[in-house]
Amino acid sequence: MIAAFPGELLRIPAAQTQIISQVVFDIRFLFFYDVAMNKTTQNRRRQFFINKPFQLRYMLYVSLPLVVVCGISFFSLYVGIWSDILNSFTDQKVQEDLITATRMVQYEEVRQNTAPNNVLSVFRSAEKLGSRQREIFKEILDKANRNISIKIALLLFFVAWGTIYISHKTAGPIYHMLRIGREWQNGNYRARIFLRKWDEAHPLAEQMNTTYTILDERFAKIKKWAREKPPQEAIALIQKELESTQTS
Amino acid sequence: MIRLSFFGLCQFRATAALLSFFLCISASSAFAYELKPAEIKLLEKIERDTLKYFLRHSDPITGLVRDNSRAGSPASIAATGFGLAALAIGADRGWINQDIAKEKILRTLTALEVKAENKNGFFYHFLDMKTGKRVWKSEASSIDTALLVAGALTAAQYYPGTEIEVRAKRIYARINWKWMLNNSDLICMGWTPESGFLPYYWDSYNELLILQALALGASNHAVPAEIWNAWFRSEDEYKGKKIIYSHSGSLFTYQYSHAFIDFRNLNDGGINYFENSIQASLANREYSMEFENQYKSYHAYSWGLSASIGPGGYKAYGGKPGQGLQDGTIAPHGAIGSLIFTPKESLDAIKFFYLRLGEKIYKDLGFIGAFNIDKKFYPHEYLGIDQGIILMMLENFLRDGIVWKKFMELDAVKNWVEIARLKETSALTAQPVIAQKPEEKTAVEPKAQS
Question: Model ipTM?
Answer without folding.
Answer: 0.80
